[in-house]
Design goal:
It comes from Rhizoclosmatium globosum. With 137 residues, this protein is α/β, with parallel strands linked by helices. It has 2 helices and 5 strands.
Length: 137
């Protein structure tokens, strides 16, 4: 039987602390690799932090999220491990709670947005919507 090690991360991310959040993501990737993990699963919205609320209406929030993702791609931190990075994405003028998959310096097909709206602890559904999978190419 083949086995795989998966690293599931819970990070102490701060809303809009892009630099600090990036560093904590990098540390978690290093720890996952040191533990022999082949797959590193980060929390949703780990790039921006969870409590951004109305900042999801601001384009800079998305711009800085993409800058963090670009830094991860360029850094080489994701070499030798699949990284699932949670971040908001603007698509067709709609804000999505999305995940990006990175292996090495390549980004792969994004996951559908999580359908957690309606959960009592989930407040981002006021700002972020679920991706319509029927409209994907």
């Amino acid at each position: 039987m083949n086995t795989i090690t998966v690293a599931v991360c819970t990070l102490n991310q701060w809303a809009l602390d892009f630099t600090g959040n990036l560093e904590r993501i990098k540390v978690s990737i290093r720890k996952a690799k040191a533990a022999g993990a082949a797959y590193r699963l980060g929390p949703e919205l780990e790039v921006t932090g969870y409590g951004c609320n109305d900042h999801f209406y601001e384009n800079d929030t998305f711009l800085h999220s993409w800058e963090v993702l670009a830094e991860l791609l360029e850094s080489g931190e994701c070499n030798g491990i699949i990284c699932d990075i949670g971040m908001p994405v603007m698509h067709d003028e709609q804000a999505l709670n999305d995940a990006r998959y990175i292996v090495g310096n390549q980004e792969y097909i994004p996951a559908d947005a999580k359908d957690l709206c309606g959960h009592i602890l989930y407040t981002s559904c006021r700002k972020l919507i679920r991706r319509n999978t029927q409209s994907r190419n």
